[in-house]
Amino acid sequence: MNKNINLLEGNIKSTLLRLSIPLALTAFIQIAYGFVDMLWIAKLGTNAVAGVGIAGFVFWIANSLALIPKIGMGVYASQAYGSNHKDETIRVINNGLLQALILGLLFTLFSLAVRNVFIEFYQLGMEAEQSAKEYMTIVASAMLLFFVNPILTQSFTSLGNSFTPFVINTIGLVANMILDPVLIFGFGTIEPQGVEGAAWATVLSQLFVFFAFILTILIENGLLRRAITRITLRWDWQVAIFKLGIPAALLSGFHASISMVLNRFMSGFGPTPVAVTSIGSQIESISWNTSEGLQVGIQALVAQNFGAGNAKRVIESIRESFKLISMIGVIATIVLVVFSEGLFTMFMPHDPEAIRLGSIYLIILGLSQAFMSIEIGLAGAFNGLSDTRTPALIGVILNLFRIPISLVLMPILGVIGVWIAMSSTSIAKGVVSMYLLRCKVNRMEWLIENR
User: Fold this and answer.
1) Which has more pLDDT, 176 or 126?
2) Which residues, in sequence order, are CB contacts of 247 under 8 Å at separation 6+?
3) Do 325 and 281 belong together in one domain?
4) Do 119 and 229 belong to one domain?
5) Residue 240 lies in a domain
6) Does 197 share its domain with 293?
């Protein structure tokens, strides 16, 4: 059965919703998994949470690198498919997959080589560092999956099918949720493995997702089967995919690097603020994770219509996308600000200081959620127009300001100063993104009226 949605015709609002709902549901399941995962790890203590949180920054860098083939391939595949160039779509997808394999292998070797130096940089103490090393060693060994699975997900979505990757990723996340407590605390003849169990649960679930994607593609016997079974290295596409994807990857990698510096600042106040930020970011993901999921759908919708030369539909797609992501951000702000203390009590009920700091974190970051959602979602519109540089420049420049703002505020407000720096720059990024995309849309409208 063909599950691809026609993104070139029909009501834009309903098309966007049909494409976006599976992406949003996947994001919510990822959020639920993040909550459950952190709840289990929190039972091992604050040091375990801090250690896994620090190790998580390496995987943030991995996700950043994976954006190179994901964004580049995703945009060009959507544009080729929208312009009805099926053979070119196949070539784009198989070259994107090749690039993901190469980058994944290189980063696996790199992360295993530098893991000890990276973790010891934070000086969190022996117990937290040991947790980070145990977790990172296992997950880094399977890093290739974290590059390939997003490409397979993006391949379906670029063709207008967000339902199939939703089902596969959901089953993988549910498997991870089941494996977590079993491997962390043991069950029956299975010995408790602590932090290592959480790592193995992640690896096994990602392995399942990979095989499910491959099996589905081979059974369906469509365009994607030809894309993964007829691998043809094309240097022109390798270069084009890399050039289009690199700005988004640099933005994400730069964001991760800035966050590492900020975490180093926070670690100076002890492991509790680091643990609070790790848990707080999971709670905060109700907006950023959902917005990132919708960004993929927005990118596909805009890119296919841009490739088809339908400028009016591109503009209307951007407007409807803005309404949707704004609503998500406003809802997130209300939830985080109103229920800040209750949300954090779920994770660390016996640590009053963590609850106090966590509540402050959620209120401060909650105020910027609408702007953060707008920035993330509109990046999909920029990407679909083959402009990956603008959102990257916005993010890099304004994220950089987090360091001096933190340095100014920390002597006065302590760790709260770092969180204010994070929230204020998120607001600025959302405002600038809206303005620059508005300028681009105005230019397109002028061209339509005067052609």
Assistant:
1) 176
2) 388, 389, 391, 392, 393
3) yes
4) yes
5) no
6) no
Tokens 């006065």 belong to residue: 412
Locus of tokens 């600038």: 432
**Rg value, the chain, Cα:** 21
Q: Among all chains, which residue has been given the structure tokens 């391949």?
A: 155
What integer is the mean pLDDT of 149-170? 89
Q: What is the value of pTM for the model shown?
A: 0.79
Contact 44, 124 (CB under 8 A): no
Tens-digit pLDDT profile for residues 418-445: 999 999 999 999 999 999 999 988 888 7
In a shared domain, residues 67 and 104? yes
Q: What tens digit of pLDDT does each residue of 106-122 get? A: 999 988 888 777 777 76
Residue 409's domain spans which residues? 250-450
Residue 323 is assigned to a structural domain of this protein: yes
Cα 116 to chain centroid distance, Å, stands at 25
**In this structure, are 24 and 144 located in the same domain?**
yes
In this structure, the answer to whether residues 267 and 156 fall within a common structural domain is: no
Q: Do residue 307 and residue 186 come from a single domain? A: no
217 and 91 share one domain: yes
Please state, in angstroms and as integers, the Cα–Cα distance from residue 202 to each residue in 131, 211, 386, following that order.
Answer: 15, 15, 33
Domain boundary among 206, 233, 260: 233
Residue 266, CA distances (Å) to 117, 260, 262, 377, 412 in order:
19, 10, 6, 29, 14
In a domain, 273, yes or no: yes
Number of domains in the chain: 2
In a domain, residue 369? The reply is: yes
